[in-house]
Design goal:
Radius of gyration of chain B: 17 Å
Radius of gyration of chain A: 16 Å
Largest sheet of chain B: none
Order of helices and strands of chain A: HHHHHH
Number of strands of chain B: 0
Oligomer: heterodimer
Number of helices of chain A: 6
Largest interface: A-B, 46 and 46 residues
Structural class of chain B: mainly alpha
Largest sheet of chain A: none
Shape of chain A: globular
Shape of chain B: globular
Number of helices of chain B: 5
Chain lengths: 93, 106
């Protein structure tokens, strides 16, 4: 099975085709490239990170800080709050 | 995992402490009706032992995931296979949210 076939089976297309097709030079673009070459599925949120690394690299750092940085709330509790928030928004993420 | 599911299903009846129930009740309001948060809501959390820092950190998580929820739904990123969720869980556990350098084997 070609990697592109596998990707089609697992993933519905995104709404913004240019964002999904974008071939950038950032960290997430190379992660996507590597997965495509080896036929491995990957989280499509990577496309959102890969499109504008200058915008999303700080988002990664912010997320790391909020979810894994020093806090009286254990990381597991923060994950649960995140899942609870997503459930409240009817979002599967 | 049972506890996680129970909290997501109904935090009022989940096997968690009263303080944790109060925190999830507060987060639910932050999530669904943030403009209606009042000093009393925060006072109720302080009364069961939560610090300002814990409340601040919890609100950060809720606000951040409101960004992600909208980002993902608006872009049609939503439907991942279970395999990807499993892989992503492992990746998060191993390297956190800021990915390891590209040269490192994934």
């Amino acid at each position: 099975m070609r990697s592109s076939d596998r990707e089609i089976i697992i993933m519905d297309p995104m709404f913004l085709k240019d964002v999904e097709a974008h071939q950038g030079v950032g960290h997430y673009s190379s992660l996507i490239q590597r997965c495509r070459e080896t036929g491995r599925p990957f989280p499509r949120i990577w496309h959102l990170f890969a499109f504008k690394p200058q915008v999303t690299d700080p988002l990664s750092a912010l997320t790391e800080g909020i979810m894994r940085g020093p806090s009286p709330l254990p990381a597991g509790m923060r994950e649960l709050i995140a899942a609870f928030t997503s459930r409240g928004n009817h979002c599967l993420f | 995992m049972k506890k996680v599911e129970a909290v997501l299903e109904n935090h009022h009846t989940a096997p968690i402490s009263e303080a944790e129930k109060a925190l999830f009740t507060y987060i639910e309001k932050v999530n669904l009706a943030p403009a209606r948060i009042r000093q009393e809501d925060v006072d109720a959390l302080k009364a069961v032992g939560w610090s300002d820092e814990a409340i601040y950190d919890a609100v950060n998580v809720c606000a951040l995931f409101n960004f992600y929820n909208r980002w993902i739904d608006a872009n049609g990123v939503g439907h991942h296979s279970a395999e990807i969720y499993a892989r992503n869980g492992v990746r998060l556990a191993q390297s956190g949210y800021v990915d390891a350098p590209a040269a490192k084997p994934g």
